[in-house]
Design a protein that fits this description.
The complex is a heterodimer. Helices cover 32% and strands 25% of the residues of chain A. Chain A is of the alpha/beta class. Chain A has one domain: P-loop containing nucleotide triphosphate hydrolases (Rossmann fold). Chain A has a five-stranded parallel sheet, with helices on both faces. Chain A is globular and about 45 Å long. The two termini of chain A are 29 Å apart. Chain B starts with a helix and ends in a 10-residue tail after the last helix. In chain B, α2 packs across α5, α5 packs across α7 and α9 packs antiparallel against α10. The C terminus of chain B is likely disordered. The chains are: A alpha/beta, B mainly alpha.
């Protein structure tokens, strides 16, 4: 399923613009910090509105001159840099948050499958504040997958982790790419990460 | 320990204070949400109006209520002709005066807790399929809840202590509008009333102190979603 993007947005002094088609696999948006990579993910997710352009997934239009789907109707999973787990819900309730809201036909993974896939089965009763950085990021990934998205956005999901944990999470991301065959838009400024993970690289520059 | 008359005063105070804060709760929350989340013309004026009872002499607030809710006042006349209700010299009037005086405190406390909610969590909820309404009920409100409860307790304590606006608006009628502070004031005017004053004053101190400690505890429990993950 191709993701077709041509957007521009003025943010203060600078204009963020991007135009690319992302095929299957992992598409890395690669560029220096402050180039607007996260803003592009936010536009795809519907959290930021572009000034002009279009965003399409397959034959579904998320945004163009006439259409502007709200985030909850886009079926776009988002793994944030800082996890953003809900602090007042246990891990289980974090994981099922989007799952319970998705239509039964849209879900393609059960809680048990996600827990096994990510190795977080014994974290279900824990509170987010008691998790390590790597555990929190796994839960955040599981929460996004369980909502039944058609694509996954990942915003520097490794940046808060130490070297050992980075390797673990990269393996998880490869399995999402290869086993689940979920298209991924992946933001990074780290060459090594991009070399290892990316099927396709889109340079986002000044 | 307390005479039946004194128990009646305590019961009336609790009734007035309870009705005042429960009726004010939705209004105070809506105002706090509006002031915390939106920029609109007249925001500064609204903010000032909400805070006015905090700085105005209470007797002036009571007098304004008297003008508005009196039999010939704009609101009073309307209440009288449509519902046959008058707040004058009734405990409901005392509750209204207490509510007006408690409003600024409640809005302040709620606003702080709403501003403490990490809005990025609401964005995360939206990407997981939550409508703005669902995100409000499942994310924003629960995260702000300890602050809302603290505001409730604080407002309740303020209501029970209300004196100036109450005595101006609904007078000092035993069994109807004579709440704790008014009863203490009355007992002070009566020779030999010192024992009653002491008992009621101690009771006031206990109630206020308990409310302050409880609201402080609730505020400390507010996490607002700004937690970090430890390794």
């Amino acid at each position: 399923m191709a993701i077709d993007i041509d957007v521009a947005k003025r943010l203060g002094e600078r204009t963020i613009a991007a135009r690319f088609t992302a095929g299957p696999g992992l598409t890395a948006l690669f560029g220096p910090s402050g180039a607007g990579k996260t803003s592009i993910l936010n536009m795809v997710a519907g959290l930021v509105k572009p000034d002009r352009g279009y965003i399409r997934i397959g034959d579904r239009t998320l945004f163009d001159g006439a259409v502007d789907l709200p985030p909850e109707a886009r079926r776009v999973g988002y793994v944030f840099q800082d996890g953003r787990l809900f602090p007042h819900r246990r891990v289980r309730a974090n994981l099922t948050y989007g799952h319970d809201l998705a239509g039964p036909a849209d879900r393609w993974m059960s809680l048990d499958e996600a827990a096994a896939f990510l190795g977080i089965g014994d974290l279900l009763g824990r509170w987010p504040h008691s998790l390590s950085g790597g555990e929190a990021q796994r839960v955040a990934i599981g929460r996004a997958l369980l909502a039944g998205p058609e694509i996954l956005l990942m915003d520097e999901p490794l940046s808060s982790l130490d070297a050992a944990r980075r390797g673990d999470i990269m393996t998880v991301i490869e399995r999402i790419r290869d086993e689940l065959k979920l298209p991924i838009l992946y933001v990074s400024h780290d060459r090594a990460e991009v070399d290892r993970l990316a099927t396709q690289v889109v340079a986002i520059g000044e | 320990m307390l005479s039946p008359e004194e128990w009646g005063i305590v019961a009336l105070s609790l009734k007035v204070g309870g009705v005042a804060v429960l009726a004010t709760l939705p209004i105070a929350f809506a105002l706090a949400w509006l002031l915390a989340r939106y920029r609109f013309p007249g925001r500064v004026v609204l903010d000032a109006l909400v805070h006015l009872p905090l700085v105005l002499p209470p007797v002036v607030t009571g007098w304004l209520l008297l003008i508005a809710f009196g039999p010939f006042g704009p609101v009073g006349r309307w209440l009288e002709s449509w519902f046959g209700v008058s707040l004058m010299f009734r405990w409901t009037g005392a509750a209204l005066a207490a509510a007006i005086m408690a409003l600024p405190l409640m809005v302040r406390a709620m606003r702080l807790s709403i501003e403490g909610v990490d809005r990025r969590l609401e964005g995360a909820a939206r990407t997981l399929g939550a409508t703005p309404w669902h995100s409000f009920w499942t994310i924003s409100l629960p995260l702000a809840l300890p602050g809302v409860l603290a505001a409730l307790v604080l407002g309740f304590a303020r209501s029970i202590g209300e004196f100036g606006a109450t005595i101006t608006f609904v007078s000092n009628i035993p069994g109807e509008t004579r709440t704790l502070p008014l009863a203490i004031y009355s007992a002070l005017q009566v020779p030999g009333g010192e024992a009653m004053v002491t008992r009621l004053a101690l009771l006031s101190v206990a109630l206020s102190l308990g409310a302050l400690i409880l609201s402080e505890y609730l505020v400390r429990r507010t996490h607002g979603g700004r937690q970090r993950y430890g390794d």
